[in-house]
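I hope you will forgive my troubling you with a question about protein structure. I am sending you one protein, given as its amino acid sequence and as whole-number tokens for its backbone shapes. Thank you for your consideration; the sequence and its tokens are set out here:
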Amino acid sequence: MTDPPSRDRGVTAALQGHPILLVLAAVLSVQFGGALAATLLPLIGVFGSVLLRILLAAVMLVALVRPRWRGRSREDWLTVTMFALALTCMNVAFYASLERLPIGVAVTIEFLGPLTLAAAMSRRWRDISAVALAVVGVVLISEVLTVPWAQMDLVGIGLAAAAGGFWACYILLSGRTGARFEGLDGMAIALVIGGVAMLPLGLFDAGTSLLDGEVLLRGLGIALLSSAIPYSLELLALRRLSAGVFGILLSLEPAAAALAGLLVLGQTLAPSQLVGMALVVCASIAVLGRRGRV
């Protein structure tokens, strides 16, 4: 009778024994989920893709977590609703940017959001200088200096930057939500709220295409890769990993996005863009890697 639980504990212990590998797997999972989402956009559009991703993730997480709905205060509901709004807007802006930019470029620009937030919260000149370095990196990766202004996709760059701003809001609100909700209850409820909010826009955008078998299969893959798998892996890893090391590993997301774009979408970046990405990654490591030693 005790063998199955013992085996489960053994598997969990083995996974927690390699927290760095767990975070790296989560980073790759998120970015390959984003690359898969880019293949879904031509089929059902931005709103349809976001609806499918959030709704399927909500179904899986609610079934797994079984959050408590009753007994919540007005402040609890206000907090989780704002969290859901930030999460949903972040996804809409990011997916819209993928229609115009390579995923490696979009993620690198988006990463300015949490990087700037971390530097602003630390208020150290070293961190602020790192953000300035990251801005130089974004200038290189966006090809502002080499592409004629008329050919620049300013809308795509603006959407990626907006996604970064919403990502910063998401980080702030996730802390407040975590303080009011147990475990993953807040995330599960936020996904439900976001899914309901996206329902009219998603149905208008995609219509009956949402029920297509290929669309549902890709949507399920995106929900798993972008939400269910990374949330679970990061939750296990954070039990054994310092905030500083976790931040350094997350700083590899732009590079992971470029890899996913190459392997899944066949997207390549110019040498100057790769240099810009490297600058952003280095700046992120400098800032986020210090979070555990503030």
Summary: The radius of gyration is 19 Å. Residues 20-293 form one domain.
